[in-house]
Design brief:
The complex is a heterodimer of chains A (500) and B (513). Chain A has 500 residues and is α/β, with parallel strands linked by helices. Chain A has 21 helices and 14 strands. The longest helix of chain A is centred in the C-terminal third of the chain and has 29 residues, at 326-354. Chain B is globular and about 75 Å long. The two termini of chain B are 45 Å apart. In chain B, 54% of the residues are buried. The chains are: A alpha/beta (500), B alpha/beta (513). At the A-B interface, helix 3, helix 4, strand 3, helix 5 and helix 6 of A face helix 2, helix 3, helix 4, strand 1 and helix 6 of B. Strand 3 of chain A pairs antiparallel with strand 1 of chain B, so a sheet runs across the interface.
Amino acid sequence: MSLDYQNDVTLHEKLIEEVLSHYPDKSAKRRKKHLSVATSGGEASEADTTDLECDVKSNIKSIPGVMTIRGCAYAGSKGVVWGPVKDMVHISHGPVGCGQYSWSQRRNYYTGITGIDTFVTMQFTSDFQEKDIVFGGDKKLEKIIDEIEELFPLNKGITVQSECPIGLIGDDIEAVSRKKAKEHGKTIVPVRCEGFRGVSQSLGHHIANDAIRDWILDKKEVEFEAGPYDVNVIGDYNIGGDAWASRILLEEAGLRVVGNWSGDATLAEIERAPKAKLNLIHCYRSMNYICRHMEEKYGIAWMEYNFFGPSQIEASLRKIAKHFGPEIEAKTEKTIAKYRPLVDAIIAKYRPRLEGKTVMLYVGGLRPRHVITAHEDLGMEIVGTGYEFGHNDDYQRTAHYVKKGTLIYDDVTGYELEKFIEGIRPDLVGSGIKEKYPVQKMGIPFRQMHSWDYSGPYHGYDGFAIFARDMDLAINNPVWDLYDAPWKKTAARSASIAAE
Amino acid sequence: MPQSAEKVLDHAPLFREPEYRQMLAEKKLNFECPYPDQMVNDLCEFTKTWGYREKNLAREALLVNPAKACQPLGAVFAAAGFERTMSFVHGSQGCVAYYRSHLSRHFKEPASAVSSSMTEDAAVFGGLKNMVDGLANTYTLYDPKMIAVSTTCMAEVIGDDLHGFIENAKNEGSVPRDFDVPFAHTPAFVGSHIDGYDGMVQGVLEHFWDGKERSEAAGVVNIIPGFDGFCVGNNRELKRLLDLMGVSYTFIQDASDQFDTPSDGEFRMFDGGTKIQDVKAALNAEATLSLQHYSTRSTLKYCEEVGQAAASFHYPLGVQATDEFLMKVSAISGKEIPEAIRLERGRLIDAMADSQSWLHGKKYAIYGDPDFVYAVARFVMETGGEPTHCLSTNGTAAWEAEMKELLESSPFGKAAQVWPGKDLWALRSLLFTEPVDLLIGSSYGKYLERDTATPLIRLTFPIFDRHHHHRFPLMGYQGGLHVLTTILDKIFDKLDRETIVPGVTDYSYDLTR
């Protein structure tokens, strides 16, 4: 399903022109390539081609000093890909900060006894001191691995997540990992995700994928009786339980999810992956690399899907079922039919409260496009969207989702985002914690779309109910009407409200 | 089907529904290759023993769940306490995203800072170009009055020279020649966030004071708060006290408005902070007082070097600590402590007397920055409590010595133990083997509360999972009252929970306590 609307091309082009005029010339030239307005409409389907263009330069270096919202390779590896693997210990290798700031912040839900057989919400750090920088940290790393084995013996393996200094001081974490893996008979994975590598989180995802390929797959005999409907779910980090709300649907449709990467994942699930029949990839950006590898090496097909909102869930379930044939297709239709009354009830309840509300998104990974239709299912309209660390292929895929006139911003700066929001004054902004409070100060409702604002899941039908409820409570809270002191209405604000 | 439109189930109840419980049980059984339950339980029990504790405390290299952050976080916090100041962190950009997120999650406020976004080529050739372009962009886009430069560990490892780079950038016209760009080298592999705070404040003072003539203004006092996640409540409370006394003072570094801007339709990227002209004038103050000794060691030395009297406190919280602070201010400023403040003090004492029976003999574990732990241990002893474990991951040997001296000064500190450099996984062992009634610290302690069932009182940075506490003071007599009430609430809530079972424990479910 897709709503029929267009966005204001002229306004958006003017906004781009305006923000660029405030930069020094050199930077204006560079930023210009990252901003555009989608030029004609497309259909919300990944397979179709479209004549829509939302072509911007992407995946290139951020400009210094502009307040990019991006993170680093370490964030992409430890924070996104590896961190959720629950039965391994992930060492933040380097100074204390990186591990501290990323500790427990992604909301990768899991089950287990933390500190005993699972370790996701813990911060293991080598806490580098000056002497480690000067003399190298390899000896310390060896000792750390021994101490982990002693104190956390039920870990299934260890990863070494490199922070900036590791690559700069020439430590050989690969040698340490090999030596200690042999000694302890455990999987130990060195990851070269130093924060200065690449231009964003994105290279960290790639490096983390490569580390899985090089240090885990094919390294052990895996005993496993494969079935005809075995799938891996790739790129679902189980934020607020997303992967669980997805798994329940896939299982109802008759599939056997033999591995989930990497939310609530175990090492065993990763090792077994090459035995599956199909890789289902949700977050294409962060895990397409390993899917391509498994396709090349093991001949496992992979398929992108989207479990945000009923339109995409249905389309995705059918697409997946088609791959497996009539038996799964029949079960899939039954599943879709089973949840239809729930979907209808959710839309009946929330759509009247959200119809026509405008939304600006600025997120990472898959969400700048994947959540668009979920909003549209509720009658909401997307006026602008952009990626923190998207690549060209992400923007191509976005073209299928957005409407003509949608403002597109890549690696947006704090300044640009503020000016765009001010100029458009959408009814809702969906972005991250750094953006939340500035937006709310402006009197505009906001939802964190990385962490689901401590809510979720948002995947699946069960998640859609929560998503719809959250959009409603954000937009329709009475606090937004209390901003103006009744004895002092500011001219500017009244004017901007009148203009809406 | 558990979910419905009428009553939308959130994650907590949703995944407790039978469908999901069964699904997760099967996932575990069929796909996770878990260790046998017995093995998991055995290890779980073993971690509660003295045997595990010995191994745990013997760790030499690994840190698990530390209660400290890295230097640049402190520098960014420090810079937020000066008028229209933008933090510019030279090095990798991901770090800045982390500092901003970390501060926003605690304060529930915007946290602005920029990075010079150095990548691999800068690692090879140095980050001069990033500094030159970056300062120009920051200056043009965000219209700051001052740009405070600090460093990530990447820039420190490759040895970028901030002073030289800033000079170069000025020569190339990135910012006007007379534009203020103080700086501090803040390597993450030295000290912690409190040292980054120290470095940045000193960097600002040196920028404005070096080479300037000082003409002492008798009785005028500078106050440096130190790294304080409760700056919003604390700074305002202390200013109120100083105003009541009629003291002439300057807060050097005051983020209380920056991290508490109103919602009225306008996003204020900058708000409040110490005015630059006031920083300049502060050179002439007779004395500089630091509210947190370990946050300001280097800065205070510098203040002494320029000729000021300097004194430091350990987070003036509680009765005697506040007494000492006020008397010191009074001695320097020549202003008397007014009767109004004496009455306030009396009201705190009154509250403590009213509640003393509930507090006497209670055992505490306290962790956090060194000055905070000192302050809370001291206050706890004033209420008749026993600070059994005092732990500071960024505490030093000097802190340990000071703590021991404090604890020996009171019969309530006789059994106390001090744990410098230890982390919260160590504290887990301490709580299992030598349990306490209450745990005081940051949000990170919630995992200790889960594992050891020790009620956690959140009184220090970072507090992510409770809202707005930092808007209320901990310092001064008013702050003491707030801390007292918070501790009491925790005690009463726990007692009520324990006595709420109808017909079983509710004989003790007293209406009046």
